[in-house]
Every structure is written in C-alpha cells, then in structure tokens.
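Page 47, continued from p. 46.
Same chain as before, 223 aa.
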Amino acid sequence: MNKKPYRPGPKRPSNATRPRGRNRQMAGKKEDTNLINDEIRASEVRLVGDNVEQGIYPLEEALKIAEGLELDLILIAPQAEPPVCRVMDYQKFKFQQRKHAKEQKAKSTKLVVKEIRFGPQTDEHDYNFKLKHAIGFLKEGAKVKSYVFFKGRSILFKEQGEVLLLRFANDLEEYGKLDQMPVLEGKRMTIMLSPKKPGSGKKKEAKEAPEANVQQENTPTEE
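Result:
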C-alpha cells in the first residue's frame, strides 16, 4: 500500500504578531469594537485620560506613554481629526461601557399600559372591583387606560360615562395623575392615568400645610 507523500502546510510568518493589548482576552471578539494599542493605524492621535498631558501626539509616542503607565491606548473617536485615544485600563473601560449600556436600557424600558373597561351603567360592586385592580396596576408602575364603551343606543348616556370616568380618576388621585380629560373616540370615551412617584402626594401635602398654618395665624380673633 503506497503512502501519500507528506506535504507541510503554510508556515506562519516569523514576523506575525497578535493584536497588542494587555487585557484583551480574545482577539477579534465581536463586542470589542474599540481598537487598542498596536491595532490603531493613525499616524497621530489626540490623547485624553487621567494622569496624562492631553494633546496631539505621534502614535508611537502615545503608545509609549500608555505603556509607561501600564495602561492601554484605546481608540474612542476614530472619526475625529485626529482620532481621539484614551489612556486607560482596557478591562475597566469595557466595564464602564457595559454599565452605561445597562443604565440606558433601564431608562428606555417599555412602559406597560393596562386597560380597564366600563359600561355606561356600571354598578357599584363592579366599579369597586375595577378600582381595586387599577390601584394595583398603578402601584406596579403601569399606566392605566380606562374607557367607557357605548354599545348601540347607550351612546345617549355619554354624559353619564364622563361622570363615571372623572369619579374613577378622582378615586385614584392618590396613586395616579390624570394625563387627559375624558375624550370620546368613536364608541369609546377614554382617560389615561400615569403612576405617581412614591411620596409625591405627601410632598404636596407638606407644601400646603405651612400655608394653612399661616392663614390661621393671620386670622383676626374676635374679642
């Protein structure tokens, strides 16, 4: 049986180097969008960071400054002229980026809207049941969209529906603020309530209390 001749594969060039970065764990990792150290190709850069004299430097000099501080040279604004680099520990830089992204995501969390439907002649038991649910939704931080649905000739009771919605908003005053007065859209009359921040009602009462005391003090007494 004839053996196939051995053919060695292409050798790695002796001068081949990996991307320089003391804290880079995986070269070419997708989330590593910022070039660092020897990956940077600009001839000169604007240097920023703590414990460095900010200004424009040739790339080689900027690399020496970062290396002297045992930190990394991180490209943060490649489109600037010249590109801007920060002297900083790369792992700390990535941690701050993740923290900032997490905070931004928390701020842009989708707001939940809960709907509560009434009829124009809702009885007291049903009203209280739905009021209890609305309080729970507002406490959880959700918006409440409440509407009266007029079916057929019940549109004749639209004024009664408006009174019902205003009463509902008033009963929820401690937990939510009214975003809009009742609006009739087709067969629906709608209001929207946003949750109040905890303690906002108490602050309002605290502001009003001194004014009441002043009025009492200034009230002349009869002799």
